Amino acid sequence: MPAAAAVRLTGLTRSFGATRALDGADLTLRPGTVHALLGGNGSGKSTAIKILAGAYLADGGTIEVGASVFEATGYTARLGRDAGLRFVHQDLGLFGELSIAENFALDHGWPTAAGARIRWSVLRARVAALLERYEIDASPDAPVGELRPAQRTMVAIARAVQDDEGVDRVLILDEPTAALPQHESELLLRSVRRRADLGQTVLIVSHRMQEVLSVADDYTIFRDGRTVARLVDATPTEDELISHMTGRAVSRAGACDTPDAADPARDTPDLVLEVRELVSGPLAGVDLSVRAGEVVGIAGLVGSGRTSLLKTIFGQHAPAAGVIRIAGREQGSRDAVGRRMAEGVAYLPEDRLGEAALNGLTVVENLSASVLRSFWGLWGMSRRAERDQAGGLVGRFKIKTASIDAVFGALSGGNQQKVILARWLRRRPRLLLLDEPTQGVDVMSRRDIYAAIRDAAAQGCAVLVTSSDFVELCTLCDRVVVLQKGRTAAQVAGAALTVDHLTALTQSAVLIEGANL
Amino acid sequence: MNQVSTAGAPPAVAEPGDATPAGRHGRLRGLAERNALLALLIVIGGFFSVYPGSAEMFFTPENLSVLLGNQAVVALLALAVLLPLVSNYFDFSLGAIAATSTVLSAGLMSRNGAPLWLAILAGVLLGGAIGFVNGLLVTRFRLNSFVATLGMATLLGGVVQWYTGGQTIITGISDGLIDFGSATWLGLPRVVYVVVVVAAVLWYVLVHTPFGRTLYAIGANPRSAKLLGIPADRNVHLSFVLAGLIAGVVGVLQLARTGGATADSGTSILFPALAAAFLGATAVRPGFFNVVGTLIGVLLVSVSVSGLTLAGASAWVSPVFNGAALLVAVGLSSYLGRHRGVAAQ
Question: What is the pTM of this model?
Fold first, then answer.
């Protein structure tokens, strides 16, 4: 019954330059069901959600929401909202310091009396009723920041559909559990399930296979921008879903490619980094070793602790427990970043503008910032040495800039990243930590950055790199460690290091348990 | 041109290579930007030297000497204000710190018969100590520097009232100090040399030490600075202490110039100093607070006010000019900042 669809996307296409992110993808939501949209990195599912949310414009296709039909090329966020789509993004968009009632009112307007006076009692009563309906055990006056994470997500959901007395609204949850610990996501999913049982239509995008299996009725799987599978009212196994996502059958034996499940690097004399039972934030006991000259990748979903691991190794976060040894020396937590740098550790953060750039300063100043002391002598800072060396680095790292005196912020993303990399590599680090080294970097610069990283490794630098781009990990790394829920769950190296295999490993908890047997 | 070499004496410490051109095609524009303030100073100075209403009095050694002597205190305070500003922190209490130091030095000599060296030392160290507390509030307790130092300024104003009982301290102040405040050396008031020495040291610290460079890095992006191993909190704290010490020197110089300590809260010299620092950020190294630009800023404001006064303008002209200069300076420097960071937004 085609007319009964709550949402139907047909032949959706969208290209970014030469890349076809969506290549005629279809998606149909039955009303009153929880529908899971699945796919690996680059499958096009995020693009599809962004098109639905009106953040991207599609190149072609049609979007139907309830009874309304839109050409996808003319679709806007406003049309989707009017037709009944409600989004809850991973960043919930709540104001933590304001009360639940205020958060609702900011979205939906304040009930007012004469003279624009806010009728607090009306607002409170309305919000209390909503909270009760959504089974959120909290007072309307409670600050959102004091709620537990699952409750916060439920508040965001309730806020998104608050004006909806019927059930003809469609709720779209984008990675709702990515930042939640397991018991919180179970709570949340149970609530979502109950909403669906009451007739709410829900589209859920998630990487966590088991959670999706516990809540969804229907499944749509994207691969390479196309819909490759549609399972209606089905109870597939995890393996089935993964084989759809990767396009090939999953062999459980294939997961155990590393014969020695422990580190192959352990106890070798040229060990540069040794991490044992590291606990910090989302990390719940990570073991890891990196040898000199080795490039080790870290794969894992959002929330798996990738970034925390690098920040903890660099000393930005103090570990709650566990041991970090660099070149055999155990690291303390006092003045940690300075000490780590003295030990020869370098760190390229994920958030380039927020945590690496000295934006208003020039290219020279950005390059020198890691080695200021080396220019200081009897006559002050040696400007000539500083500029000569900066000129050399600009050439060596192929940084495209009008001059070394150009403002850092005026460079392109790729060239900014090269400056940051050059800033650290000029210190000849012993251990280089890279967090998403080519995020927002063009293809040409990416090649230069890879070359620089390999060059450093060839000279004996140990490299630890995290990336959500599995192609990058496969190109760059000798070995990839898979993090899941804050633990090292598997390792892949050699011929087993393929994009499909990494996708399967990061998506599947079952497989990983197999690998660790 | 003779005008420049006299009025522009402090910029002698400038180094042309200090400035950073904005790129090859922007070189000419950069040159104009860096020197606009100096050019304006020359134009205004030149104007009052020939304008019939002020020409007779303005360009005389006496007037210039008085002008520089009076502005020495503001110039020095502007240098103090500059230090925290480099890392994007305000210190509004520096005027009040100077006033407190003035009162303490005067009081120690007048009431306790303390020797001059002790009174000076106490005044300067008190400034440093208050700066230390400011730094602690800002870096350790994470108070907003704007509000914390405003609170400190108000508090110190009250302490000054209490200590003096609202009375001016004029008796018992060392004659040596007062002589120093009024005497000249090679035709320039001695206090000007103090400014030149402090400016030179501060210029060296900001431009030619790793410490100074880290202050600019912290100003550009404190999170990046921390991830470069820069002890950002410690360095910012130190910049507050140094600013407090300089403000302590300002207090002692103020005492030397006026020969007494009034129950003043110090705001009357703070605002011209702030104006000069912001004006300075439009010159020499546009978009950044810098020593040479700040000195040019002080001279610009004082030359203008002096010329206007000699030309017969009323007393209200000076604060109006100061305020307008501050507004224009802040507007210009934030425009320049935006212009520089335009690609980053």
Answer: 0.78
